[in-house]
C-alpha cells in the first residue's frame, strides 16, 4: 500500500472509495457533503437522515453512488463534537475506512485529512494520524500461514490537499505516519512471534539490526559483573541465557536533552516455580511487549532523527521452572546493592 498526495478537486477523482468526514450535527451544513449531495440530487443527505447518521465519533456510513459521482462509493466517518476532537478519533476513523475498503474490495482510497480544517491540529498532524490509522489497520501477522491468493488489498491511499501551499506539510505528515506505523508493526511482529522463536538473543538480534542505532548486547558474564542479581535470578531457570540490550541514538550536533526508555523483556513468563495456571500462561509470549515497543520506537527515532539523545534499555530473559530456578524465599541482590526476598517467582516484573 502506497500513500500519495492528491491536489485535484475531489469531485472529479476516479476512485473506488472516497472518504469524507462530518462532525456531530453537520448533516445540513457540511460544505463538502453539500457539493456531493447536489450532484446526486439530494441522495446522500437523504440516506444519512434516514439512517440517523449524526456524525458522532465512531459512526460510519457507506453509500453506493450508483455512478452519479466519480467515486464508486462514499464513506462518511463521524468525528464527534468539535470541542472533543482529537487525533485518536482520526486514527480510529481511518482504520474503519481501511476495513471498509477491504470489504468492498476497493483497491484505491481517496481520503480527506480528517480534522485538518479545524485548526486544532495542523494539517500535517491530521495526515499523520490518517496514515497511522490505515497503516495499523493493514497489519497482519502471517509468518506461519499463507494468505489466500484472492485476499482483497488496498494498493493506494491518496490524501486530499487542495491548497498547494500545504503540499510540503502534508508530505511530511505522510512520511512521519508511515514511519510510526512501521515501528508499531515491527513491535507487533515481535510480540506475536511464539516464544520458541523469540528467545532473549532473538530479541537482541532484532535490536542489532536497527539502522542508525548503536546496539550493545551484554551476555551473562557481563551482566553478572554489573551485579544485576535480581535480573539473573529471573533468568537462571531457562535454557536460554539472558541478554541485556542497550540501544543508543545520538543526534548530529548537540542534543536538546537525554531520554532513557526501558521495556520489560520477559520473552516467556511461565511464572517460574510459582507456576501460572495454564489459561494464564497462554498469552505469556507477550510479556516482552514493553521491550518490543522500545525496539519499535528506536527504529522510528533513527529515521526521524530528532535533536534528542535516546537510550533504549531491555533486560531480556525467560522465566521458567527448573532445578536451577530461583525459589520462593531466595534473597537476590540488585545492581543498586539492595537485597530482595523473593516470595513469588511470578512477581518478576
Which structural class do you get from the secondary structure elements?
alpha/beta
β-strand percent reads: 15-25%
The total count of strands amounts to: 12
The figure for the number of domains is 2
Rg = 25 Å
At the fold tier of CATH, the topology name of the largest domain is Leucine Aminopeptidase, subunit E, domain 1
Shape type: elongated
Strand order in the largest sheet: 1-6-5-2-4-3
Q: What is the CATH architecture term of the largest domain?
A: 3-Layer(aba) Sandwich
Average pLDDT, to the nearest integer? 95
Distance between the termini: 38 Å
Fourth-tier CATH superfamily name of the largest domain: Leucine Aminopeptidase, subunit E, domain 1
How much helix is in the residues? Answer: 25-40%
Oligomer: single chain
Summarize the structure.
With 349 residues, this protein is α/β, with parallel strands linked by helices.
Please, could you describe this protein's structure?
This protein has two domains: 2-191, Leucine Aminopeptidase, subunit E, domain 1, CATH 3.40.220; 195-341, Zn peptidases (Aminopeptidase). It is an alpha/beta fold. The protein has helices at 31-39, 43-50, 87-103, 123-137, 167-192, 200-208, 220-225, 229-235, 278-281, 289-304; strands at residues 2-6, 15-23, 60-64, 71-80, 108-111, 156-160, 214-218, 243-249, 258-269, 309-319, 331-333, 339-341. α3 crosses α4 and α4 runs parallel beside α5 (167-192). Strands 1-6-5-2-4-3 form a six-stranded mixed beta sheet, with helices on both faces. Strands 7-8-10-9 form a four-stranded mixed beta sheet, with helices on both faces. It has a two-stranded antiparallel sheet with strand order 11-12.
Amino acid at each position: 500500500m502506497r500513500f500519495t498526495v492528491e491536489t485535484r478537486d475531489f469531485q472529479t477523482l476516479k476512485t473506488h472509495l472516497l472518504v469524507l468526514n462530518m462532525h456531530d450535527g453537520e448533516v445540513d451544513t457540511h460544505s463538502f457533503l453539500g457539493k456531493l449531495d447536489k450532484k446526486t440530487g439530494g441522495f446522500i443527505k437523504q440516506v444519512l437522515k434516514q439512517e440517523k447518521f449524526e456524525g458522532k465519533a465512531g459512526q460510519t456510513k457507506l453509500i453506493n453512488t450508483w455512478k452519479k459521482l466519480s467515486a464508486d462509493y462514499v464513506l462518511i466517518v463521524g468525528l464527534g463534537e468539535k470541542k472533543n476532537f482529537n487525533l485518536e478519533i482520526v486514527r480510529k476513523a481511518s482504520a474503519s475506512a481501511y476495513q471498509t475498503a477491504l470489504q468492498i474490495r476497493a483497491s484505491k482510497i481517496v481520503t480527506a485529512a480528517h480534522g485538518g480544517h479545524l485548526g486544532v491540529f495542523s494539517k500535517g498532524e491530521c495526515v499523520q494520524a490518517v496514515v497511522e490509522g490505515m497503516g495499523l489497520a493493514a497489519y497482519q501477522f502471517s509468518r506461519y500461514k499463507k494468505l489466500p491468493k484472492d485476499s482483497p488489498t488496498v494498493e493506494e491511499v491518496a490524501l486530499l490537499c487542495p491548497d498547494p501551499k500545504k503540499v510540503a506539510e502534508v508530505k511530511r505528515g505522510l512520511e512521519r505516519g508511515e514511519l510510526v506505523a512501521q515501528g508499531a508493526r515491527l513491535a507487533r511482529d515481535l510480540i506475536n512471534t511464539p516464544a520458541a522463536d523469540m528467545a532473549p538473543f532473538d530479541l537482541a538480534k532484532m535490536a542489532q539490526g536497527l539502522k542508525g542505532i548503536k546496539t550493545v548486547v551484554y551476555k551473562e558474564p557481563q551482566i553478572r559483573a554489573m551485579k544485576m542479581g535480581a535480573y539473573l535470578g529471573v533468568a537462571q531457570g531457562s535454557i536460554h541465557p539472558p541478554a541485556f540490550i542497550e540501544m543508543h541514538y545520538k543526534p548530529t550536533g548537540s542534543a536538546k536533552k537525554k531520554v532513557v526508555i526501558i521495556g520489560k523483556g520477559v520473552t516467556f513468563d511461565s511464572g517460574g516455580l510459582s507456576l501460572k495456571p495454564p489459561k494464564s500462561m497462554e498469552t505469556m509470549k507477550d510479556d516482552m511487549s514493553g521491550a518490543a515497543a522500545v525496539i519499535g520506537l528506536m527504529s522510528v527515532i533513527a529515521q526521524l532523527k530528532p535533536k534528542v539523545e535516546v537510550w533504549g534499555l531491555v533486560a531480556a530473559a525467560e522465566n521458567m521452572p527448573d532445578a536451577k530456578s530461583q525459589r520462593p524465599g531466595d534473597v537476590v541482590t540488585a545492581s543498586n546493592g539492595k537485597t530482595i526476598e523473593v516470595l513469588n517467582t511470578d512477581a518478576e516484573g
